[in-house]
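Worked problem 6 (solution included).
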Amino acid sequence: MRALFNLLTFLLTTVAFLGGAFFILVRLFSSINFSPDTKAWKETLRRLREKLQQQAGSTLVPWDKEMFSLLSLNQISTKKGGWMDSTYSGTFTTIYHEPVLAYAGRKSGANGVLVARTSDREFIFRQKGKEIEIWINSQPFGVLVDGTLLSAGRTSQLLAQFNANSEESQLPVLLGNNTAAAISNPDKKNSPNPRALTLLRDLTPDEENALLALALVKMIR
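Solution. The predicted structure is:
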């Protein structure tokens, strides 16, 4: 009887050890995928783009200036990441229930990568702790830290700013020298078909990109 007990104890210990080792390896290789300028990073982007193609294809409605006021917080085709496959994805619709913005991402602890696209542009977000690096159409755009978006490069000019942790239903966004827009707080939906953004003035192309980048960070969890 004691021999059987010892055997069971050994087997359970071995299984627990192998399971722990496997979990550590999965987390390790996942974090490697989030390091730019590596084959693993490029492979991660390829798979996420492939996921977006399978998910949205050419179904996204054309993006134009009117879409800023038509974009809603509602999503379709959402998928949460699991233990074996950490990929999550979804598609935001307009207030008329048209697919307009698709995304797919992976996360490992405080690190992650997210690819999102409209019909005319692609966003890549690389999160490392509290810092998020942003590319638009494969070009460096900015770095987001604690709600402050700075331009990429040595100049690091202020592009936009908002309070991502606010509990208010509307989050004012500073663009340039004034508050130019507001992002609706997904946690404070006040209607079944809430608009995601409110514009307070016309925006330049760079301001549009900055606003949409901030909105994506807030809308996608």
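Discussion: The mean pLDDT is 86.
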